[in-house]
Amino acid sequence: MKVFGDKKDFAIGYELSDKNLYGDGVNNTIGTLQCWVNGVDTLAYKYNEKELQFKGILYYIVDWLFRKMEFYLGYDMFPLPVEGNTAVELIEHSAVDIEDDLEQDLWYIARDRWKSNHSWFSVVSDAPLSGMYFRRVGDRIEISWSNDFWKNRGIEFLSSNGSYCMDKEKFKAVLFEFLQAVTSDFSERYRDNSFAEKWKKKALFDLNIK
């Protein structure tokens, strides 16, 4: 497994499987993914008494990290007038009933849009994935997660809830080292350069990754 970063702070590791389960092509690439935050293995879970890691289609997670970069690294404030110390709390506190139907629709459209821009949870359906949020708070990145959703399905994440703030530049350095590596692996395996174009986004954030 290739691992990037410091597990005591923030680190991502991945390993591509030898075979795909659903067909050829980069969008069917199966792999194992691990993510450590403040020393916690956030993607590890138990099912039927077995401890497991995320193993599914990595393409969708990598694609999400590229597509939503401007939101979780940029200035994208929570759009609703609720209070909360973390992204998870903001989402929880904004689950309210509003008498006016149109106003409720507008409220939840704004909420769901923000969730999709800051959490990779919705992009994977073939394997359990932690309900993790990423958002910028000043010059830091907050990473928070809640896995209560999985309990009713007999899946227990080793860390059900948590939050951690870290230096934005350190987060970016680890993230883009990971993205650069997995993009290279995708391109080499499939001779598919679609991610190479997305990688150009790094210039928007002055990454200076060589």
Topology of this structure?
Blueprint: E1 2-6, E2 10-16, E3 30-37, E4 40-41, E5 45-47, E6 50-52, E7 54-57, H1 58-67, H2 69-72, H3 87-93, H4 101-118, E8 132-137, E9 140-146, E10 156-157, E11 161-167, H5 168-190, H6 194-199
Antiparallel strand pairs: 1-2, 2-3, 3-4, 3-7, 5-6, 5-10, 8-9, 9-11
Compact overview of the structure:
It contains six helices and eleven strands. With 210 residues, it is an alpha+beta fold.
Task: Tell me what the structure shows.
The protein is α+β, with helices and mostly antiparallel strands. The protein has one domain. The chain contains 6 helices and 11 strands. The chain has helices at residues 58-67, 69-72, 87-93, 101-118, 168-190, 194-199; strands at 2-6, 10-16, 30-37, 40-41, 45-47, 50-52, 54-57, 132-137, 140-146, 156-157, 161-167. Strands 1, 2, 3, 4 and 7 form a 5-stranded antiparallel beta sheet that branches. A 3-stranded antiparallel beta sheet has the order 6-5-10, with no helix packed on it. Strands 8-9-11 form a 3-stranded antiparallel beta sheet. A hairpin with a 2-residue loop joins strand 8 and strand 9. The protein is globular. The two termini are 22 Å apart. The mean pLDDT is 89.
State the main characteristics.
single chain; 210 residues; alpha+beta; five-stranded antiparallel beta sheet; three-stranded antiparallel beta sheet; 6 helices
Distance between the termini: 22 Å
Tally of distinct domains: 1
How would you spell out the order of helices and strands? EEEEEEEHHHHEEEEHH
Number of E strands: 11
Strand content: 25-35%
Q: What is the averaged pLDDT score?
A: 89
As a percent range, the share of helical residues equals: 25-40%
Rg estimate, integer Å: 17 Å
Structural class: alpha+beta
Task: State the shape.
Answer: globular
| DSSP summary: helix tally | 6
Q: State the major sheet.
A: 5 strands, antiparallel
Poorly predicted runs of 5 or more residues: none
